[in-house]
Structure formats: structure tokens, C-alpha cells
Amino acid sequence: MEIEVSMMQASSSTHLKQQVRKYREDFEQAKRSFRREETTYAEQKSKETLMGARLDNVSPRQGLSGEYRERLLNTNMMAMEQHAKLEQGKRTALEAEGVAIETMKNLQGQREQLERASYNNRDIADNLSRSNKLITTMTKRAIANKAIMFGVIALMVLLMIFIVYMKVS
Q1: Measured between alpha carbons, how far is 70 from 105 in angstroms, rounded to an integer?
Q2: For residue 50, what are the contacts with CB-CB under 8 A and spacing of at least 6?
Q3: pTM for the full model?
Q4: What is the pLDDT of residues 42-66, one digit of tens each?
Q5: How far is residue 75's CA from residue 51's CA, in Å, rounded to a whole number?
Q6: Number of C-alpha atoms within 13 angstroms, CB side, residue 135?
Q7: Alpha-carbon Rg of the chain, whole angstroms?
Q8: Which DSSP state fits 74?
């Protein structure tokens, strides 16, 4: 209906849009009411299933018949079993919590070790950088010293040749 109303001309569709909106609101309200009743019915049925049939028709003077007593005992036994299962689940959850706490402590210790290792790694990297600069400087100085030494040797050889030439001539 909404699609058909949206396809109509604006002059004739305003009244129809209001009616469609009203129908939709009525439908939503009916749906909510149905869900509420369905929930109530489901709760009622689950209570009856858990507790057995209703005991409204049994007077206190008559006592419980064997069938009703058996149902009550079965229900009580089921409740005790469920309680035992819940207690077991609670113990398991507490054990899991203890393991989780221990794991968190271990992870925290490992995190601290990693942080220390990272700090040491940065320190080592800084020291390596400084040592590389120092080695580079030492290498440059060694090359400069060799060049000066070869220059002095060459100068001395030239001077000796000059002196020998001067004496010979």
C-alpha cells in the first residue's frame, strides 16, 4: 500500500498516506500486544512444566495424591540437579578467573621484559651509531696521515734528487 500511495499524485495521496500510517501504527500495536501475550503464555507454560500440573484442585485436607507427590519429588530432584550444575559452573568460572589472573600477571611481566629489551636495544643502537662515527673519523685521519707521509717522502726524494743534481753539475 505504501508503494502504491507513493506513486500517486500529491493531491490525492495525502489522505491515503495518513490512513496507511494509521494502519501501520495499529499493526505495530497489535504485534506488540501479541508478543506480550505470547511471552506471558510461554512463562506460564514453563512454570507449569517445571512445577508439574497445577495443584489448585487439591485441598490441604486431602493431601497430595501419589501422582502429584511424585511430580513434586521429580521437580525437587530436577531443581537439586540444576543447583549442583550451577555450583559446578560457578567453581569452573572461579578456576578460569584464577587462570586468567595468573596469565595476566605473566603477560605483564613479559611486557616489562620487552620494554626493558626495547630500551636496551635503543641504547645499543645509539652506541653503535657513535662508534660508527668514531671509526669513520679515525679512518679519515689515517688516510690523511698516510697522504701527508707520502707527500713528505716524495718531497724528501725530490730534495735529494735536487741536491744530487746540484752537486753533479
Answers
A1: 52
A2: 75, 78
A3: 0.40
A4: 777 777 766 655 444 444 445 556 7
A5: 6
A6: 6
A7: 49
A8: H
